[in-house]
Specification:
Blueprint: E1 9-15, E2 25-31, E3 34-35, H1 36-40, E4 47-48, H2 57-67, E5 79-85, E6 95-102, E7 106-115, E8 121-124, E9 130-133, H3 134-142
Antiparallel strand pairs: 1-2, 2-3, 4-5, 5-6, 6-7, 7-8, 7-9
């Protein structure tokens, strides 16, 4: 049995490819020094995380609560949106989603997929799951509120 190495998660300000909305920056997921979008092989540079890009703070707070397990996810099966459309944030334009699991001392991101409907998961992204130390995971989101 192989032991999965736990990764370090931070949120870092990143320039968006488009300056049409917001200030052109968003908080991106950096996993052990690598952008999550690079790890997932995302070619669509028109995607942003739900954090820091849009002016709607209520939506950002809802996403934050989902990532922190403070409220049920709005997507079925405990899925969360990691990357959303930078123009409108609507899942119909395409999103990258994953399941986030709380396993006590670790948090696991798994089952990455493309999704264009709340009810239907699209093409799976074939990468290994990511495991984070619980304390480090919650520290990454602490600056958001």
């Amino acid at each position: 049995m192989t032991k999965t190495m736990k990764k370090k998660l931070i949120l870092s300000w990143t320039e968006s490819s488009s300056k049409e909305n917001s200030n052109g920056k968003f908080l991106d997921f950096i996993v052990s020094g690598q952008k999550l979008s690079d790890y997932l092989g995302i070619k669509n540079s028109k995607s942003v995380t739900p954090f820091g890009f849009f002016d709607n703070k209520k939506e950002q707070q809802q996403a934050l609560k989902e990532f922190r397990f403070q409220q049920a996810t709005r997507l079925p099966g405990g899925r969360v949106e990691l990357y959303i459309c930078e123009c409108c944030g609507d899942i119909g334009c395409g999103a990258i989603t994953a399941k986030i699991l709380d396993r006590g001392d670790k948090i696991i991101w798994t089952d990455f997929a493309n999704q264009t409907s709340e009810d239907e998961i699209g093409e799976r992204i074939n990468v290994e799951q990511l495991e984070f130390e619980r304390i480090d995971y919650f520290k990454a989101f602490a600056a958001l509120g």
